[in-house]
Amino acid sequence: MMTSLTWERRQSRSPVPYESLDWPATETTVAHVDVSQGEQQGHLVSAEEAPSFIDFYTAAACFFWLDRQPVGGWLYQGVMYRHQDTRGRVNGVRILDEEVEVEVEGDAIGGMIVELAGGGPGPTHRLPDRRAPSIETVRFPVKDGLPPGAWVLLRSGEEWIDRRFLTVPWTRGTEAGVEVIVEPRTKLEA
Fold first, then answer.
1. In whole angstroms, how large is the CA radius of gyration of the chain?
2. pLDDT per residue of the chain (190 residues) written in tens, 0 to 9
3. How many CB atoms lie within 10 A of CB 116?
4. How many CB atoms neighbour CB 117 within 10 A?
5. What span, in angstroms and rounded, lies between the C-alpha atoms of 155 and 132?
6. Which CATH number among 3.30.420, 2.40.70, 2.60.40, 3.90.320 corresponds to the domain 89-180?
7. Contact between residue 103 and residue 154 where contact means Cβ atoms under 8 Å apart
8. Predicted structure pTM score
9. What is the rounded CA–CA span in Å between residue 106 and residue 97?
10. How many CB atoms lie within 10 A of CB 41?
11. Residues 6 or more apart from 121 whose CB is under 8 A from it?
């Protein structure tokens, strides 16, 4: 018998193969596999009023509302628990010519720190200590452009609450809520 447990922290609106969540989340996956026995085989015939199924995989697909039967007749033997963290999130990031504007919101963002991190130490801003849910906007000047490896971090002490990657090597395509604003220029300015 083998049991494994994994924990992973995900940012809000993280691209995942399943439903993306609006708030940062902690995912806990519990997998329990009995390696001494194979998968349940044969028909699942109900003794009472419950439905019968041709096999375990069809029953699992119906029970978990899967669109299709698992590929290859194999179903992952585990459970995933996803807990959304409504203390705070990065709502959006606007990258302008000379500043980065970060909007954060949450039930408990008071006293948290918003940081424009990168390859070296970056500027930080401590949010006002408010007890009620709120929305705050923080602006970081970037007159020379974004620092290499730039990312925005919302943190409480040593714990990261939410984040957005802004530049390579961390970005993997378009980040949810990150908007680059290019102001119109004349041909001479460009």
1. 23
2. 455 678 888 899 888 777 888 999 988 876 655 544 545 556 667 767 777 877 666 676 666 655 555 555 555 555 677 889 999 999 999 999 899 999 999 999 999 999 999 888 899 999 999 778 899 999 999 988 888 889 999 999 999 999 999 987 677 667 777 888 876 655 555 4
3. 24
4. 21
5. 18
6. 2.60.40
7. no
8. 0.68
9. 28
10. 7
11. none
The token pair at 77 is: 């033997």
In this structure, are strands 89-95 and 178-180 parallel, antiparallel, or unpaired?
parallel
The two three-digit tokens of residue 49, written as one number: 């009023």
For the chain, the domains span 2-84, 89-180
Structure tokens at 75: 């179903």
| Residue 73 DSSP one-character state | G
CB neighbourhood size of 66 (10 A): 13
Cis bond upstream, residue 128 (ω within 30) = no
Q: What is the DSSP letter of 39?
A: -
